[in-house]
Amino acid sequence: MQTNLASWASGTDLGNEADAILRRCVHCGFCTATCPTYQVLGDELDSPRGRIYLIKQVLEGKEPTQSTQQHLDRCLTCRNCETTCPSGVEYGHLVDIGRKIVDERVERSWGDRTRRTLLRKAMLSPMFAPAMRLGQSLRGLLPQALRRKVPERRDAGPLPQVGQHARQVLMLAGCVQPAMMPTIDAATIRVLDAVGIGARIAPGAGCCGAVSFHLDAQDEAVAQMRANVDAWWPLVQDGKVEAIVMNASGCGAMVKEYAHYLRHDAAYAQKAADIVALVKDVAEIVAPHAGLLRARLPAGMRAAFHPPCTLQHWQGLRPLSEQLLADLGFELQPFADKHLCCGSAGAYSVLNPDIALELRDRKLGAIAAASPDVILSANIGCIGHLQSGTDTPVRHWVEVVDEQLRRAAQG
Q: Which of 47, 152, 156, 168 could form a disulfide with 186 if both were Cys (CB 3.0 to 4.6 A apart)?
């Protein structure tokens, strides 16, 4: 695709990056076949190809409008189009650039700004955890629309002493998961302990930055990235940890982008690259030990595995994860359109509920045809979103493995 950038964009870091991405696009349209929003809305401007043209027009000098902003907002950032694209177009990075530039030129309505700000600050607030616990205690009294956003609280259970292990890894503290589903972190620590790996959280580490990044606060997100690098760096530099383990694929996908977002920061570029080299999804850590765990697990369970977009399209870990689950004894049931987004996408399900619910119901309909006993996933957002529309249990796979191991240990 030929480009002719406006003078304000030409020669800038963002302009050069966007120009390189745009020039790889050959307008083939393969991306439209796998774009969830295009399948739902049927509008070319709500497809990757259409959004690429909108961003190109802005970079070439055309003034963006609220319509431009809305089409970019509607993107789930699932990156399914990147998996499909034969030309290797880095659409995810391009839409990040497009959103940043458009948001600087198009003022959102007061209501939209307020909603996004409150949503971002609420999820990052220290009051989020007590508010969530209160909501869970009153869950049965909440309106249905709110109740589906509040998961039932389960006991996280006791944690083992992990300091004696020679192998040590770090975990991300995160912002939402410890409050909404603390069982995921606890299960991760116990499963890693079962294979001889100690897991701990570094003081000072917090949100990965994804919440702020996708809610119009990219500079705030970059500051959160630097804070995490600072928290992890002393332990990484001393060689005390062999990996930084992610059990929320959305966080893992974002942290694996740190080197990209900090590449122009002289104080953090190399540190971020070294950090990214250590980042592993929990499935990558557990996979070599599947045989050891399988010997302690009961007979197989009929399960449907929903691979989050951040796992399969951002990180390319769907094959490894599915093989791991099969090796652990799960009887994985195939279902249609496994590659498509479920509609969760971080805060997307709050900001675009109609599209999100239609994608959720399409996904659950496909899964229901497989009649699984449990739906497994690897990201808290997908788990909560899917569970809101089905009575079939939706769990992080590491939780189920942990429960089976504890059950086996009890005789």
A: 156
Assign 75 to helix, strand or coil: coil
Angle at CA of residue 347, ends 357 and 215, nearest 5°: 145
Report the distance separating Cα 359 and Cα 365, nearest Å. Answer: 10
pLDDT in tens, 366-408: 999 999 999 999 999 999 999 999 999 999 999 999 999 998 8
Query: E strand or H helix at 191, and its extent?
Result: helix 182-194
Question: Quick check: 196 and 190 in contact, CB under 8 A?
Answer: no
pTM above 0.85, yes or no: yes
What is residue 137's predicted lDDT score, i.e. its pLDDT? Answer: 84
Residues 303, 294: Cα–Cα separation, whole Å: 16
Is residue 337 classed exposed, middle or buried when 0-12, 13-18 and 19+ CB atoms within 10 A define those classes?
Answer: middle
The tokens describing 376, both together, are 């497994």
Question: Which residues on neighbouring strands pair with residue 331, listed in sequence order?
Answer: 302
Cβ atoms 328, 297 nearer than 8 A: yes
Burial of 300 (0-12, 13-18, 19+ CB in 10 A): middle
3-state secondary structure 5-65: CCCCCCCCHHHHHHHHHHCCCCCCCHHHHHCHHHHHHCCHHHCHHHHHHHHHHHHCCCCCC
Would you say 162 and 142 are in contact if contact means Cβ atoms under 8 Å apart?
Answer: no
Q: Which of 265, 276, 315 is nearest to 92 (CA)?
A: 315
Token couple for 320: 């490894």
